[in-house]
Amino acid sequence: MPVSSTVAVAQKRIFAMSAEIWDEVARTIAKQSPCPRAQVGAVIFRADRKAVLSTGYNGQARKSESILCGGSCCDRDRLGIPSGERIEIGCIHAEINAIANAVYEGIALADACIVITAPPCLMCSKMIIQSGIKTVYYRGGQRWTSTGEDYLSAHGVQLISLGR
Ligand SMILES: [Zn+2]
Ligand SMILES: [Zn+2]
Known about the structure:
With 164 residues, this protein is of the alpha/beta class. The protein has 5 helices and 5 strands; from the N terminus they run H-E-E-H-H-E-H-E-H-E. Bound molecules: zinc ion (2 copies). The site of one zinc ion has 7 residues, from helix 4.
């Protein structure tokens, strides 16, 4: 095998390995979510340097006291709003929090990867594109209505499912 393809195979292995590791980290981070409806975690990382750039879970805005989410009942459940719709109601999604946390720390996300423990909604997908993230790993699941996958693909973002 030529050296270049050996390197490519090795790089692919590191890439896949790091996505699996960050997926586990994202699932651990999801446990911090105060949302009674669903706990979602996101990790933004650089595959080439095995470095985490930012993390997030779904929850209320900084300094807010459980006004929209984190009480005993989620507003989305109370109002019967399906997953992926009216995302201004309820908590800030994990992906948006991870992007916002990077902004807070002054970290650039161009060409980064994100792993999410749920499929991205349309609003999060827009944020992912604008932040410069180029690869999205995500988990599926019966409860989720995915609304962002086609939009991400149409904008050149690579989508990789990690299964349920
Ligand atoms: Zn919530
Ligand atoms: Zn979202």
